Amino acid sequence: MKPSSVHDRVVAVLYQSSPTPSQGGIRKPAKPGGYRDSAADIAYALRQGGVSVVTPNSEADPARDLDWAFGDERDGIKAALDAGASLLWANTTLYDGHPLAEFANNVGVVGQSIALVDRFEDKWVMNQWLRSHQFPVPNMWTLRFLDVVPTVLPLVLKPRRGRGSQGVQRIVSRNDIPALAPGDKCLDAFVVEEYLPGEEVTISVMPPGSFVIDNRVRKVSGYWALPPVMRRYHRNGIIPYSGEVPVLDNSLVDHTSSRALEQLVSNCEAIAARLYSRAWLRIDARQDPEGVYRIMDVNFKPNLTGPGRPGRDRDVSLVAMAAASYGWSYSDLVTNLLQSQDWTLPF
Fold this sequence. Notes:
Layout: E1 10-15, H1 36-48, E2 52-53, E3 70-71, H2 74-82, E4 87-90, E5 108-110, H3 114-120, H4 123-132, E6 140-142, E7 155-159, E8 169-171, E9 190-194, E10 200-206, E11 209-213, E12 216-220, E13 224-225, E14 229-231, E15 251-253, H5 259-275, E16 281-287, E17 293-299, H6 318-326, H7 330-339
Parallel strand pairs: 1-2, 1-3, 1-4, 4-5
Antiparallel strand pairs: 6-9, 7-8, 7-9, 10-13, 10-14, 10-16, 11-12, 14-15, 16-17
């Protein structure tokens, strides 16, 4: 069963076809391929779910990513609109001045608002915002203030505008921290946070909207979480980047409950509400020595790969894994995300 309004729109999926600009001397690294694999997964799954999808190649080959998704530069967006798209799925990294903003007043956009992503993909800014709203977070320092970092080790070094666990490393000695000279631009490119030794979990938070649940269309008025996914088999205390180790190999949906986990889920839903999140979020947390889950990262463009196309059975994202446990196929997931709210809201 699909909500009828899904069939009223023609969808095109965008991928990141050009690097993001530098922001304060910091550039978010591009994913190899610019999310075109997940963009193709999304477009293919939407079409399998009965949604009208336009593609760069009218006879798109399921095995070819670029047959299914348009680049997010101005020419790519215009090509999608010229092909008949009335709704653009922004499966890309957004930033202030993104070409999509030029078209947003005339077409629906699936994805977060540019202003929200531009501000809060900075891990230092996100950490300080969460702290200011009394959400539990690990202590964090920029490298410019490394002299006030306590001598307690280990620590975690991570890119300030990074992607998932890529480039994240556990620091067991101050000698492991990069030697940077005063004034070095790299001082602004990284943050250091306290290492949390406990269990790690990721929570996928859905926005308000209409969803097909138990084969019925239901209106959900608040933000709500899919089942938690527990992360296992860390390397040197850090979960390997999903491009190196598929999440199927180190993650497991957990249906058990505890007071600490229930509090985390409540916090994650409250975070989405305070941010007025326009789309789905993935929030990563880890327990401190007292068992409290502290928020390590808020992902505004979670990886959304999923099975369906040839050879993609193991390319399952954490969001898709949580959705499968909830009873949604990957096609159900992306169709529900498409339907989940009024995408004509300010972008």
